[in-house]
Every structure is written in structure tokens, then in C-alpha cells.
Amino acid sequence: TPQIAIGMLLSKGCEYGLRAALYLASLDEDGYVSIRTISDELDISFPFLTKIFQQMNEAGLLKSHRGPSGGVAFTKPADQITLYDIVVAIDGEELFRECVLGLPGCGDDKPCPVHERWAEERERLKQMFERNTLADMAVKIKDFDVRLVPTG
Q: Which of 132, 97, 91 is CA-nearest to residue 115?
């Protein structure tokens, strides 16, 4: 089966949103975390990250607090937030519904050349995002020293 480059399917904002959410989930803090701290740690533009967090806030995944001890925090435990929740909050559900070639009306009745294969991969991708919580991934970050920032 072909391997899909997920990064090509997600917007840059969604990639950053996933990284930031995973970073937040990996911290042992229960309080608010400064957006500036997250921005600096992950080398993501502060204004761009603020915009991404706004989308996650509107989706009910994050809450924010202004002031010196302000920042962002999850609205529920990380084991109740899936990667799917983050993707949908930022990019919407199109990745899991739309034609990979961007053809309107593509479906079983009028398929594009890639429709059948993409439908299978799209469903597998959706299941992977739905089955993995931020808490699941945070364990990998803490216990196995996996990275959230580019090397180099």
C-alpha cells in the first residue's frame, strides 16, 4: 500500500497546532502555559500560533487567560482530546471527506482515478487520528524522547 505524506495533506497551521497541543499535553503543569513560551520552545511565529490557538479555543479544546500568569490550557484532560479533534478544529473535516485531487462531486458514482484507493487511505487516516489521544502521544514525548521541533 502507498504511504501518504500526511504533512502534504495538513495545512501548516494544523501541523503547528498538533505540535503545540502535543507540547502542552507533555508538560506536567495543570495551569495556563504562556503562548510565548510555546512559541519559543517550538520555534513557531507567536502571531501565527496565537491565531491557531484561537481556532482551538473556538472549537472548545482550549481556554485562555490574559495577564502575567495567563496563557492557554486544555478545557478537558488530554486523554479526552484526540488528534482528530485538533485536525478538525484547525483544518475542518475536508481531509476525511474530500477528493484528494480536489474534484467536486467525486464519489462512487463519478470517481476520479484515485478515488477508490484514496477512500481506503482516508478512512485509515481518520481512524488513526481518532484512536490516538494527546495523552497517548505525550507519553511518547516524555518516555521515548521523540521530538516536536525540526533538527538542524
A: 97
